[in-house]
Amino acid sequence: MLSLLKSLYQNQNLVSNDSIIEWIKRKNQNILVDVHLVSFNHLDKWQFERRTGNLVHDSGKFFSIEGIKVKTDYGIIQEWRQPIINQPEIGFLGIIAKEMDGMLYFLMQAKIEPGNVNCVQLSPTLQATKSNYNCVHQGKSPLYLEYFQNAKPENIILDQLQSEQGARFLRKRNRNIIIRVEEEIPVYDDFCWMSVSQIKQLALIDNMVNMDTRTVLSGILWNEIIKSTFDNNHDIFRFLEDHRVSELWKDMVVSALSADGIYTINNILSWLSRLKSQYDLFVDRIPLNETKDWSIQESEIVREDRKYFRVIGAKITISNREVQSWCQPLVQPMQEGICAFIIKKINNVYHFLVQAKLECGNFDIFELAPTVQCLTGGYKGTTKVPFLDYVLNVSEDQVLFDTLQSEEGGRFFKEQNRNRIVIAKDDFADSIPDNYIWMTLGQLYQFLKFNNYLNIQARSLISILNFK
Length: 468
Hints:
By secondary structure, the chain is an alpha+beta fold. Helix content is 24%, strand content 33%. The protein contains 13 helices and 24 strands. Strands 6, 7, 8, 9, 10, 11 and 12 form a seven-stranded mixed sheet that branches. The radius of gyration is 22 Å and the shape is globular.
């Protein structure tokens, strides 16, 4: 699809990046946002169930804070209990695309979520749970919902069910979808057409592009788009030369086009299948009041050692939402986090060092994750996380990008994690742990076609790759 490829490589934007940044600043100045932390007994329409202690909404919808008991034979800690967000609904994360002057633009939303560190972030056209778009909150229906509900198969560019954070959600998924419209559609006050290139450039600014946008963008299979647009490799590289793509990003395109690396797809599937059959993960839902080592207090649900995260209550007013005032629980991290890929040229092709990571909320025990992912524990000074010391101490010329990226602000309170991709030097150790493997970008894209293979942290990092 040439119009989508142009959106990635050409700088023919309807508005400049500076104008978008200024637009977001104005939104932050003009929209009333008040997020006030309150005790749980002041959470309107939320209550602790008498028998279980679960924190639930009066409607029985939206989500609940429940307990789980986890047992596994994998890793150092093999049994624990914790609170978790149970949100069984599958929501929409959707972007509308439209071709204008031969180039595809995405309709992006300047959206405020209560947990955002900086209020307004660039969000998909539609970002809504089933409870939201069924108006359980008795507010207005989300804008543009009907375009996704009535989308014809020939107008769907991307349509996937993808997982959310496996350490905080119990088997949570959202429908990641991009649709193309031909007709003129209204552009409301909080929306703006942007090229893919712009979104990726803005994602290099701390906390500018939200998690939901990043997970949707990650599903675009650039390898297949490039292959379907050009007849041969000569035409591909002539296009890259014409667009002044650097040698580094030409090499990244080569990695994206490489269906096989030092391992084949069958090798990788066999490795993952072996791990899934070798280890067990048992997750049982239990009453929240039976989560050992956690206490339910007046204003927080917290571990006795105050590690990992806590659950808090918030009373929220945001003047431009479908419902302007409401209450809800939020999950707040207790420590910093980092998500990082190490990449290395092997046989002249960039490979990504990928780990199979077990998290208690996963659908199928393991998902493919970044080289380093420690989202719920302090990482400074620790030696327990493989390759952590390496990604934190590389020289500046090894860093492909390094940004702070927010977690989803609708459920998480001011959580941001350092996102890095670093290039390993030739002397990087050949031996890697059994749950790690080297994969080309093209192989990662092959797994991205399917549900529940790449976790949301890996997808977030991949989404920032701009190939230029």
